Amino acid sequence: SPWAQEPKRHALLKPASKRPFNAEPPIGMLADKFYTPNELFYVRNHLPVPSINPDEYELELVVELSNAQSNRTFNLDDIQKMPKHTVTAAIMCGGNRRSEMTRIKPVKGLSWGPGAVGNAKWSGARLCDVLQAQGVQPDERLHVIFEGADLDPTAHPYGASIPLSKALDPRGDVVLAYEMNDQPLSRDHGYPIRAIVPGTVGARNVKWLTRIVVTDSESDSHWQQNDYKGFSPSTDWDTVDFSLAQAIQAMPVTSAICTPMPEERVKVDKDGCITVRGYAWSGGGRRIERVDLTSDAGKTWHVAQLEQENLPDGRHYGWSLWTARLPISADQQKEQHMEIWAKAVDSSYNVQPEAFENIWNLRGVLANAYHKVKVKLSQ
Ligand code: MTE
Ligand code: MO
Known about the structure:
- The protein has helices at 27-30, 76-81, 98-102, 127-133, 164-168, 222-225, 330-335; strands at residues 14-17, 22-24, 43-44, 59-64, 69-74, 84-92, 117-126, 143-151, 157-163, 175-180, 183-184, 194-196, 209-215, 254-259, 265-267, 273-281, 288-294, 302-303, 305-307, 320-327, 337-346, 371-378.
- It is mainly β and 379 residues long.
- Strand 17 and strand 18 (302-303) form a beta hairpin.
- It binds ligand MTE and molybdenum atom.
- Molybdenum atom is lined by residues 44, 93-95, 202-203.
């Protein structure tokens, strides 16, 4: 059975599906640490986890230009001997928070809560160094295809691609990573090497990387062509034409409340406030500028305190954790229940949409409306 070699997983990872293994950590723990502990980092596998012997591991690089083709093979040592680059990046699944979108109308996809995201420090060789050493020059028409060692039943590997301009940009911080939070990658997260494409949807961060192709077309894989794309709320399975939509690359701004959790009973403190914590993130290296919270459906907003790296905008790939103290009125305390809303604003002043109705799409991706959590109050 292809499932006989699956790794052991942490008991707190709650599976959305077991084969392939897909799981997110308890939301209440997600904002506890700026760097998500490796064993609690969400796992999104489309296929069985490949078992790779590091001594036999090979990474093939193919450069296909109109006038020339070159091939080169690297082993693990070759990659680890190159200058080591470390970048903090949140990885988020394109379907993160899908379960909230499903409440509007059913969608196809794993029912993710807000935990299909994690933040880590990734170390490895920079893809721009590898490509430059092979003489690859900037060209807006080209793409970089990544293939994994995980194969579907027809022996096709998991694959995805990114524009060459992102791969060659030294500020793009794309790395062939062999470490996650200073530890060797675990099998679930891509051992021995995965592509880390900061600011870009999780699907392009290909694990168990075995092949890189620089060429003039995007990956022809299912996941690049017929999945991870956005559509109008009126597009349905009878009318959808995947060839007309752009593959998701940079993700839109989003945030989520991690504590309190839905339906949790929260104690109002002696100053008449409750404390709310969560995360916020935007794709494309856009820093989070602000997170706003309301407990009265937007009549009054309270600005959260941010915990984030001090990095220039455009190259700010990690998430921001935030904490807010929300004053609770006497009326709310009497009613004993209320709803908290969170919305984030990024450095381009992009802001989350208020509701899911107008961003609903049949695959349930890009689910970034305000996060709304109902809680109960106690004295
Ligand atoms: N890479 C391979 N080879 N196979 C996969 O199934 N899943 C992708 C991406 N890379 C996938 C892959 C998707 S959709 C996501 S969201 C991220 O890996 C999840 O990364 P993680 O499991 O390390 O959190
Ligand atoms: Mo994903």
